[in-house]
């Protein structure tokens, strides 16, 4: 158990809909990262938040948005869903970087768009 | 543009032998490298890391080697055990990118009993 929790574990929805994925980081971690893993793909970095502020953006579509709340949990919002958005979405958290650090991953949310 | 590449999608090794997983990167600014292990239906789990100031880091059966001139790193598992069967991802980061991790596409390791 990494200490990072994600809900829901599975999500099935239809094209055009909007969903929200939730992540709670490890205690004490200020950074939260979101990744997408499509079939046979590596982990594609979407976005990073640090202590409530957006820190870095990766290959995140405009239909997707995220935020980190004062209690440090984060939500990833996916809207106008398309079939190609079906994937595993992982959240990770990390402590402040010193000499190098590690990202700890949650179990993921499997999104299926029908 | 894939900055971290794992060119072998799969690898099969006999139990007790050495498993060698390879990873190449293109960005010379990367200064921190990690290996993650992933079982089906679980999130990736951190395995071992190495800073660019080192060329080797060892943790039990796992050793990571870094060749900066070749922009190449490898993970050695000795001896390999059936429980090591999983997908292994390498990742790289650079301090100037705010610790954004770039992941390879993974290598699926099967250790045959």
Helical/strand content category of chain A: mainly beta
Average residue pLDDT of chain B: 93
**Relative strand content of chain A:** over 45%
Measured between the Cα atoms of the first and last residue of chain A, the distance is: 31 Å
> How many separate helices of chain A?
0
Largest sheet of chain A: 7 strands, mixed
Mean pLDDT of chain A: 91
Query: Percent range for helical residues of chain A?
Result: under 10%
> What pair of chains forms the biggest interface?
A-B, 31 and 28 residues
Radius of gyration of chain B: 13 Å
Q: Termini of chain B, distance in Å?
A: 38 Å
Sheet of most strands of chain B: 6 strands, mixed
Element string of chain A (H = helix, E = strand)? EEEEEEEEEEE
Name the overall outline of chain A.
globular
Indicate the proportion of strand residues of chain B.
over 45%
**pLDDT under 50 segments of chain B (min length 5)?**
none
What does this structure look like?
- The complex is a heterodimer of chains A (114) and B (113).
- Chain A has strands at 5-7, 10-13, 19-24, 31-37, 44-50, 53-57, 64-68, 74-78, 87-94, 104-105, 109-113.
- With 114 residues, chain A is mainly β.
- In chain A, β5 and β6 form a beta hairpin.
- The model of chain A has no long low-confidence stretch (mean pLDDT 91).
- In chain B, 0% of the residues lie in helices and 53% in strands.
- Chain B has strands at residues 4-5, 10-14, 19-25, 32-38, 45-51, 56-59, 62-67, 72-77, 86-93, 102-103, 107-112.
- Chain B contains no helices and 11 strands.
- Chains A and B meet through β4, β5, β9 and β10 of A and β4, β5 and β10 of B.
């Amino acid at each position: 158990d990494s200490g990072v929790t994600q809900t829901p574990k599975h999500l099935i929805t239809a094209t055009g809909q909007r969903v929200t994925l939730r992540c709670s980081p490890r205690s004490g971690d200020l950074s939260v990262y979101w990744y997408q893993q499509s079939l046979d793909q590596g982990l594609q970095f979407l976005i990073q938040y640090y202590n409530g502020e957006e820190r870095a953006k990766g290959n995140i579509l405009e239909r997707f948005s995220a935020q980190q709340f004062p209690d440090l949990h984060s939500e990833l919002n996916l809207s106008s869903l398309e079939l190609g958005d079906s994937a595993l979405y992982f959240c990770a958290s990390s402590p402040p970087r010193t000499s190098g650090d590690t990202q700890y991953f949650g179990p993921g949310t499997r999104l299926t768009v029908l | 543009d894939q900055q971290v590449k794992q060119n072998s999608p799969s690898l099969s090794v006999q139990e007790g032998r050495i498993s060698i997983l390879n990873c190449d990167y293109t960005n010379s600014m990367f200064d921190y490298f990690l290996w993650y292990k992933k079982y089906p239906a679980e999130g990736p789990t951190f395995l071992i890391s190495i800073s660019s100031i080192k060329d080797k880091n060892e943790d039990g059966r796992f050793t990571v080697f870094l060749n900066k001139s070749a922009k190449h790193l490898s993970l050695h598992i000795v001896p390999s055990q059936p429980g090591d069967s999983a997908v292994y991802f390498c990742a790289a980061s650079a301090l100037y990118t705010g610790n954004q991790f770039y992941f390879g596409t993974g290598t699926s390791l099967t250790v045959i009993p």
